[in-house]
């Protein structure tokens, strides 16, 4: 029954369908049906093209996985938290970011997952810096990295210039760029630029192993740890590029110094290095450096074997500074600019708790400046050449920190030290009472006339004294002595100093703040050498006045005809070299001041001092 009923129903349904199709065929003519099909096809086609993306085939090659990650803060953070910045890769990308376009950088190794963070750094305009002022995370990271002592090289020359801000000239900028490209591990803290580091604080190198703040457990507690476990980038021991005046090294850890062997060794270091350093700030001058001993600075990955360096004869609890006192230190100016001032700049921050190690020690010279050494160190000097023992330190700096000649840049100096701080310190060393150039009530301002005994003498010194007295000065005439203290005491009693360009003007460091320095510049286009005192005097808080003599005021007119090249072509004389210039314009020339022409400068000097008195 069920089977028969089902069959009948199916037959009836089939019969009804046949009748429906027959009726439809009578109402829809073939012509109308064809038009409908065409119209339907057109509607479907329009709908398809309205949703199509014709540029998809062009976009695909330009959108790399790196760009999509760069645009996503989550991806960038993830990359920063998973990988340590690779200096080798960084150096390669840095070169690209400085020379090629953004597209070229992203096109290089675009599929390498390890380059995610590096590519994000390169994704900037060519002249952008990577640690921007507005990027608080980057600034904080740079600070932490400096504290850790793991400095990274600049990513590009432009970035290094904007961050550092205090490079001495364009030549050093080029050197830094070359160093960043060729030796990505090398960097400097000696007035060097701020490190450019990852913006994620959790991955900043630190001096000791620390857990990142966003990761509860950075590593399993039972994971094997090598001897060099602290996460920090290895910083080369020595810096040969950032300072035009001196090469220097900094060693932290188990440092062993053997004076007689002229070696400084860091043992148990992550990697082995060896450098040869002459610790004196005239590295480009062969004459100055020829008597400066080479110090071998090295690191070893193991402890030393049996021998004289195997054990520490003396263990020091304070850091050490190693420097040479040779070079040009026999010249009074160079004694200050090459040793005394850099020593203050480097050692003052230790408050006396620092050991001085002196190579090439000259007893007569050390004795001359012994009060200065005692003011900066609580310990006796060590004569390295005569020391046949191994001394051990936790920190050693080979070569002193120095800026320009006879100058301190407070922006780069420890604790912001300045030339005013240096002069204040020097007055304290010699117990000088006057800190300000304010004469006592009723007293005349005092002028110190530096009377050179040989070259660049004042031929009419007596007339100069009378002219200065006439405008209101009490005048003191002195050539100076070998002993520093007596002349320092004399200079400090004066309010102004007058002299022809020469080392004697270095004694301006003992003038009270607010005093006046008058430098007389001899004939011969010597304005550039006058700069050795021009800027430093201003930095010391002194009023600087410069007097450039006319040909008639030079005794060279008594030795050469008026049409001689030394008058008509001084640049030609200078082009023959320093010795030619020195022989003619510095060694053979004396000065006879035209007092009518010079008197206004004396009046200007005394007016400045009297204004101090009225303040």
From TrEMBL:
<feature type="compositionally biased region" description="Pro residues">
    <location>
        <begin position="213"/>
        <end position="223"/>
    </location>
</feature>
<feature type="domain" description="Glycosyltransferase 61 catalytic">
    <location>
        <begin position="424"/>
        <end position="518"/>
    </location>
</feature>
<keyword id="KW-1133">Transmembrane helix</keyword>
<dbReference type="GO" id="GO:0000139">
    <property type="term" value="C:Golgi membrane"/>
</dbReference>
<protein>
    <recommendedName>
        <fullName>Glycosyltransferase 61 catalytic domain-containing protein</fullName>
    </recommendedName>
</protein>
<feature type="transmembrane region" description="Helical">
    <location>
        <begin position="32"/>
        <end position="50"/>
    </location>
</feature>
<comment type="pathway">
    <text>Glycan metabolism.</text>
</comment>
<keyword id="KW-0808">Transferase</keyword>
<dbReference type="Pfam" id="PF04577">
    <property type="entry name" value="Glyco_transf_61"/>
</dbReference>
<dbReference type="InterPro" id="IPR049625">
    <property type="entry name" value="Glyco_transf_61_cat"/>
</dbReference>
<keyword id="KW-0472">Membrane</keyword>
<feature type="region of interest" description="Disordered">
    <location>
        <begin position="182"/>
        <end position="233"/>
    </location>
</feature>
<keyword id="KW-0333">Golgi apparatus</keyword>
<keyword id="KW-0812">Transmembrane</keyword>
<dbReference type="GO" id="GO:0016763">
    <property type="term" value="F:pentosyltransferase activity"/>
</dbReference>
<dbReference type="InterPro" id="IPR007657">
    <property type="entry name" value="Glycosyltransferase_61"/>
</dbReference>
<keyword id="KW-0328">Glycosyltransferase</keyword>
<feature type="compositionally biased region" description="Low complexity">
    <location>
        <begin position="183"/>
        <end position="212"/>
    </location>
</feature>
<keyword id="KW-0325">Glycoprotein</keyword>
């Amino acid at each position: 029954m069920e089977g028969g009923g089902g069959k009948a129903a199916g037959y009836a349904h089939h019969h009804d369908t046949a009748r429906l199709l027959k009726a439809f065929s009578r109402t829809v003519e073939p012509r109308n049906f064809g038009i409908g099909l065409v119209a339907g096809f057109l509607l479907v086609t329009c709908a398809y093209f309205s949703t199509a993306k014709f540029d998809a085939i062009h976009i695909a090659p330009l959108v790399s996985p790196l760009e999509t990650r760069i645009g996503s803060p989550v991806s960038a953070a993830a990359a920063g938290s998973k990988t340590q910045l690779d200096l080798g890769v960084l150096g390669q990308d840095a070169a690209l970011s400085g020379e090629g376009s953004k597209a070229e950088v992203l096109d290089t190794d675009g599929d390498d997952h390890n380059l995610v963070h590096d590519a994000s750094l390169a994704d900037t305009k060519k002249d952008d810096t990577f640690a921007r002022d507005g990027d608080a995370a980057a600034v904080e990271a740079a600070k932490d990295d400096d504290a850790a002592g793991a400095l990274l090289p600049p990513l590009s020359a432009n970035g290094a210039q904007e961050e550092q801000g205090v490079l001495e000239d364009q030549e050093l900028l080029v050197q830094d760029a070359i160093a960043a490209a060729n030796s990505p591990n090398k960097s400097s803290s000696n007035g060097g630029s701020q490190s450019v580091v990852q913006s994620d604080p959790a991955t900043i190198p630190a001096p000791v192993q620390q857990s990142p703040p966003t990761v509860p457990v950075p590593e399993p507690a039972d994971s094997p740890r090598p001897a060099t476990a602290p996460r920090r980038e290895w910083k080369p021991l020595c810096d040969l590029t950032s300072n035009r005046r001196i090469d220097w090294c900094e060693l932290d850890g188990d440092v062993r110094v053997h004076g007689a062997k002229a070696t400084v060794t860091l043992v148990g270091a992550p990697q082995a290095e060896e450098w040869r350093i002459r610790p004196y700030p005239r590295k480009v001058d062969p004459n100055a450096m020829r008597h400066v001993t080479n110090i071998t600075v090295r690191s070893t990955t193991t402890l030393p074997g049996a021998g004289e360096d195997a054990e520490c004869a003396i263990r020091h609890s304070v850091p050490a500074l190693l420097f040479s006192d040779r070079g040009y230190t026999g010249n009074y100016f160079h004694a200050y600019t090459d040793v005394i001032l850099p020593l203050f700049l480097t050692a003052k921050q230790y408050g006396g708790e620092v050991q001085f190690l002196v190579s090439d020690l000259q007893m007569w010279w050390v004795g001359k400046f012994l009060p200065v050494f005692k003011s900066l160190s609580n310990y006796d000097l060590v004569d390295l050449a005569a020391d046949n023992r191994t001394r051990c330190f936790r920190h050693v700096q080979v070569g002193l920190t120095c800026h320009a000649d006879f100058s301190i840049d407070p922006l780069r100096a420890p604790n912001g030290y300045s030339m005013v701080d240096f002069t204040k310190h020097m007055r304290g060393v010699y117990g000088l009472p006057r800190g300000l150039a304010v004469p006592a009530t009723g007293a005349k301002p005092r002028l110190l006339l530096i009377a050179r005994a040989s070259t660049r003498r004042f031929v009419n010194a007596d007339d100069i004294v009378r002219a200065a007295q006439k405008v209101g000065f009490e005048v003191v005439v002195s050539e100076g002595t070998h002993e520093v203290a007596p002349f320092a005491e004399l200079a400090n009693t004066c309010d102004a100093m007058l002299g022809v360009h020469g080392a004697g003007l270095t004694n301006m460091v003992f003038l009270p703040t607010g005093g006046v320095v008058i430098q007389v510049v001899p004939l011969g286009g010597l304005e550039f050498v006058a700069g050795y005192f021009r800027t430093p005097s201003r930095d010391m808080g002194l009023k600087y006045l410069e007097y450039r003599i006319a040909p008639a005021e030079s005794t060279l007119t008594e030795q050469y005809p008026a049409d001689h090249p030394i008058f008509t072509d001084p640049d030609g004389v200078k082009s023959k070299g320093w010795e030619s210039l020195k022989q003619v314009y510095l060694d053979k020339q004396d000065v006879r001041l035209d007092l009518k022409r010079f008197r206004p400068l004396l009046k200007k000097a005394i007016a400045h001092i009297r204004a101090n008195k009225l303040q």
